[in-house]
Amino acid sequence: MSASSQSLANKQILLGVTGGIAAYKSADLVRRLQDAGASVQVVMTPAAQEFITPLTLQALSGNPVHTQLLDPEAEAGMGHIQLARWADLVLIAPATADFMARLAQGMGNDLLTSICLATKAPIALAPAMNQGMWHNAATQANLECLIERKVIMFGPAEGGQACGDVGPGRMLEPLQLVDAAAGLFTPGSLAGKTLVITAGPTREAIDPVRYLSNHSSGKMGYALAEAAAEAGANTILISGPTQLKTPARVTRIDVTSAQEMYEASMAAAPDCDLFIAAAAVADYRPAQVASQKLKKGAEDSITLTLVKNPDIVASIAALPRRPFTVGFAAETEQLLEHARAKLQRKKLDLVIANNVGDTQIGFNSDDNAVTLVDNSGIQALSQRSKTQLARELIAILAGRLDKHPASEQAK
Ligand code: C5P
């Protein structure tokens, strides 16, 4: 989809600009939104005006830029309530860490936060900040809170930052934001649905420098997350440590251990329609994590006592208002028998079985072939790229979700 396709024809977009260096891209964004057919009203926070002048955005949008909450003249014209009602979408780009914190707190201490409180339109944020600020526990907690309240996240992307750091926190490019905004109005097969997906390995600490883990690359889970976002789902990816980039329009929550993945999944699952467990979760973790690095002793062998981790997907399937719940069965033998056993034992709606003993497909490869197993039978999808396979799986799952009673229980 491109901006020239008028993908936002007749849509009224309230563009909120907050105080980050990426605010200079908002000027281009105004133009791109208009090229796609949207009417744009711009609201700037005081901090945003330190980076770019209201005059620039006024000239580009063709409308006066709104900056004051308590300006009698402005309120007499298009005040915060009128702006909140006017918008088909409130898009905040860039959204700083400070703005996310204020939004999460429900504050209304400037025009933009007041509009966010008053509007019935969807609110989408394009976060932009230093990677350290993005990873900060407070920002991550605010992110989780906003996602829970159905605020939509566009990005952030990863890469070089204005401060010289490299990592997540870059604002998506204007055209990507236009596409993402258009996607909200163009219903895909998963439009209006929320998907939570786990991916990648987990790491179970032995001591401060050692851990138990596995060879999962996370590629299949990330491909599914990308395909789901393309299909219009509000997609939350709960990821163990991987080398992969976050797909566009996917909100990623980083975890390390199985316990952390369990907690993030249980927090996100009650609000979702579809849960896919693609992570290779460690079944066991060391019973004790040594506080200091373990030293080599005289013994020729030592024993590590392991305790069982919670089964994440089974816990989701056991929720009273469960989402449609899908697990993977990565096996090296007796694929279908193990997959059927998993379907029953974990009370899943569907199992995606794949043979990880085959080096052409599975764990680290770019290709995969799978067999879908549910109570009605099996369906084989032959070898193809993980991206293609993911699109097909998402299309199949969207079809099942429409028919399945579990999808109604989630709402
Ligand atoms: O039992 P097994 O690990 O073979 O089951 C695999 C499926 O269960 C995968 O979907 C995996 O993501 C999920 N799983 C989980 N939590 C665990 C173990 C596995 O969600 N502790």
TrEMBL record:
Pfam families: DFP, Flavoprotein
Chain intervals for the UniProt region annotation (Phosphopantothenate--cysteine ligase): 195-411
Cofactor binding description: Binds 1 FMN per subunit.
Active-site positions on this chain: 163 (proton donor)
Keyword flag Heme: no
Record domain DNA/pantothenate metabolism flavoprotein C-terminal: where: 190-397
Catalytic activity entry: (R)-4'-phosphopantothenate + L-cysteine + CTP = N-[(R)-4-phosphopantothenoyl]-L-cysteine + CMP + diphosphate + H(+); N-[(R)-4-phosphopantothenoyl]-L-cysteine + H(+) = (R)-4'-phosphopantetheine + CO2
Function: Catalyzes two sequential steps in the biosynthesis of coenzyme A. In the first step cysteine is conjugated to 4'-phosphopantothenate to form 4-phosphopantothenoylcysteine. In the second step the latter compound is decarboxylated to form 4'-phosphopantotheine. Catalyzes two steps in the biosynthesis of coenzyme A. In the first step cysteine is conjugated to 4'-phosphopantothenate to form 4-phosphopantothenoylcysteine, in the latter compound is decarboxylated to form 4'-phosphopantotheine.
Family: In the C-terminal section; belongs to the PPC synthetase family. In the N-terminal section; belongs to the HFCD (homo-oligomeric flavin containing Cys decarboxylase) superfamily.
Record-given protein name: Coenzyme A biosynthesis bifunctional protein CoaBC
Organism: Cellvibrio fontiphilus
